[in-house]
Design a protein that fits this description.
alpha/beta, Rossmann fold, 2 domains, seven-stranded mixed sheet, six-stranded mixed sheet, 18 helices, 16 strands
C-alpha cells in the first residue's frame, strides 16, 4: 500500500464525470468508477483524491490479491479509513466485507473502487452494497472533453432550445473522428499505429479479462465474434445470424456477447417500452463500445471510411450514441438510453429519457435531410405524448433546419459546437 503520488506531469484533460465523483465522495461511503480499460479511470481517481491522503491498492499486485481472497473480512479490517481499491473486479468476494466495514463506519468517501467490468450486470454484488454505493460510469474521451467544452447539447435537447446555427460541414473530418475513437492512448498515435493499438487492446481483454469472468471460447473465436459485432454495429441484434457468422450456437453466442458487454467492448441498447398495446418490437440494437475499436476491427482507416458512405453512416450512428452516453456523465440525474422500433416499420436510433422527458435522435451521414427522415420521430412523438421534448436528425450538413414543432435537423458538429449563425429554415 502507498499513498497516491501527486501528478507531476501535464494535467489530465478535465472529465465530465469529475463533478459527480466529487459530489459522491462527499456523501456516499463507497464510490465505484467503472468503465473499459485504458479510458482514464485511475487518472480521474488520482486527479480527485491524489492530494487527500488516500492509500492506493491494486489487485494486479498478486500479494494483495492473494491476501484479499484468503480472508476478505480480515483484509478490509486492516485497510486505512480512506483507500482506493483498483482492479476490484478481480476480488468479487470483497464486496460483502466492504459492506460490513461500512456498516460499522459510514464515513463518506471511505472507499473509492475502480473496476474494468460492469458490476451492475452482477446483481448479487450490486445488491450487497445497496444504499451504500454510488456507481459512476467512465467512458473513453468525448469530443467536448478533448475540446475542453461544456456539455450543453443534452440540456438543449430536452428543452428543444437550439440556437440558429450554421456550422462548417465536417466532410473528411467526420471519418477521421469516427475512426479515431476516444481512448487516450490511441489518440496519441498516427492512424496505422492507432489501429495496431486497438487490435492489441482487444486481444489483451479477450485473453485476460474475459477469462477472469468465466469459461470462454478460444481467443481467436472470441475475436471473430467481436469482429462480427463490429460489422453489425448500430443494427438490430440478430442473434441467430451473428452466431451463424462465427460458427457458434445461439446460447453460446448469447453467453459470450454478455461477457463482451461486461467488459464494455459491446453495448446492447435495449428497446423502448411504452406498454403492451403499442406494437413495439423488443429487439435491442447492437453497438460497439467505441468506434475507434470498430474501425480497427474492420480494417478501415479514415480515407476508406469516408468513401464508403454506407459503412460511415453505420459507424456514425454508434459514434453519436457513444458521444451522448459520454456527455450524460455530466448530468446530475441519470439519462436512460434505448432504441425504438414499431411493427409498422418506424424506427428511431436513440431514445433518451431524463426524468419525465423523452427525446429521440436519428443519425445519417447524408449531406441533406428530408421530411421522410422524421417518420420515426413523429411516430415516437405520437406514442410519447406530452413526454416528448424534442426530436433531432443529425446529418453531415451545415444548416440547422426546423421541420416542425420540436423537430430539428442539425449538423453532427452541433454535438460539441455552439456557433450562432443564420436563422432556422422552415420545412413543412
Amino acid at each position: 500500500m502507498f499513498t497516491l503520488p501527486l501528478l507531476s506531469d501535464a494535467p489530465a484533460l478535465p472529465r465530465l464525470a469529475q463533478a459527480r465523483l466529487l459530489a459522491s465522495l462527499a456523501d456516499t461511503p463507497v464510490v465505484l468508477i467503472q468503465g473499459p480499460r485504458q479510458c482514464g479511470k485511475t487518472t480521474l481517481a488520482r486527479t480527485v483524491v491524489g492530494r487527500a491522503g488516500y492509500a492506493y491498492i491494486t489487485f494486479d499486485d498478486d500479494k494483495q490479491l492473494r491476501a484479499a481472497l484468503a480472508d476478505p473480512v480480515g483484509y478490509v479490517s486492516q485497510l486505512p479509513r480512506q483507500a482506493v481499491l483498483d482492479e476490484i473486479q478481480r476480488v468479487p468476494e470483497i464486496f460483502s466485507a466492504l459492506k460490513l466495514a461500512v456498516d460499522q463506519d459510514r464515513q463518506p468517501g471511505r472507499f473509492l473502487l475502480i473496476g474494468a467490468t460492469d458490476m451492475l450486470l452482477m446483481p448479487k454484488l450490486a445488491d450487497s452494497l445497496a444504499g451504500r454505493i454510488e456507481v459512476i460510469r467512465l467512458h473513453p474521451l468525448a469530443q467536448i472533453e478533448l475540446r475542453k467544452q461544456d456539455a450543453f447539447f443534452l440540456n438543449r435537447l430536452f428543452s428543444a432550445n437550439f440556437k440558429p446555427t450554421t456550422l462548417e460541414r465536417m466532410g473528411t473530418t467526420m471519418a477521421e473522428l469516427v475512426s479515431a475513437g476516444g481512448f487516450p492512448a490511441a489518440l496519441t498515435r498516427e492512424s496505422q499505429r492507432r489501429r495496431d493499438w486497438y487490435l492489441a487492446y482487444a486481444h489483451a481483454l479477450l485473453q485476460r479479462d474475459l477469462r477472469d469472468l468465466g469459461p470462454v471460447a478460444p481467443v481467436d473465436m472470441m475475436l471473430r465474434l467481436l469482429e462480427a459485432a463490429a460489422d453489425r454495429t448500430s443494427r438490430a441484434l440478430d442473434l441467430a445470424e451473428l452466431a451463424g457468422a462465427v460458427g457458434l450456437t445461439r446460447p453460446a453466442a448469447r453467453s459470450y456477447l454478455t461477457l463482451l458487454e461486461r467488459v464494455f467492448l459491446v453495448d446492447l441498447l435495449p428497446p423502448w417500452y411504452a406498454g403492451p398495446s403499442q406494437r413495439l418490437m423488443k429487439t435491442p440494437t447492437l453497438h460497439l463500445g467505441d468506434t475507434g475499436l470498430a474501425a480497427a476491427l474492420l480494417r478501415l482507416e479514415a480515407p476508406a471510411l469516408h468513401t464508403n458512405r454506407t459503412r460511415l453512416g453505420q459507424l456514425l450512428k454508434t459514434f453519436v450514441l457513444q458521444a451522448l452516453r459520454r456527455q450524460s456523465t455530466a448530468q446530475a440525474s441519470p439519462i436512460v438510453f434505448s432504441c425504438f422500433r414499431h411493427r409498422d416499420g418506424h424506427e428511431v436510433g436513440i431514445v433518451l429519457e431524463h426524468g419525465a422527458l423523452l427525446a429521440g435522435i436519428d443519425v445519417t451521414a447524408s449531406t441533406s435531410v428530408t421530411a421522410d427522415d422524421f417518420r420515426g420521430l413523429r411516430k415516437l412523438a405520437e406514442l410519447a405524448g406530452e413526454r416528448f421534448a424534442c426530436g433531432v436528425v443529425l446529418y453531415d450538413g451545415e444548416a440547422s433546419v426546423r421541420f416542425g414543432p420540436r423537430l430539428f435537423a442539425l449538423p453532427v458538429r452541433a454535438l460539441w459546437s455552439d456557433q450562432p449563425g443564420a436563422s432556422f429554415a422552415w420545412r413543412n
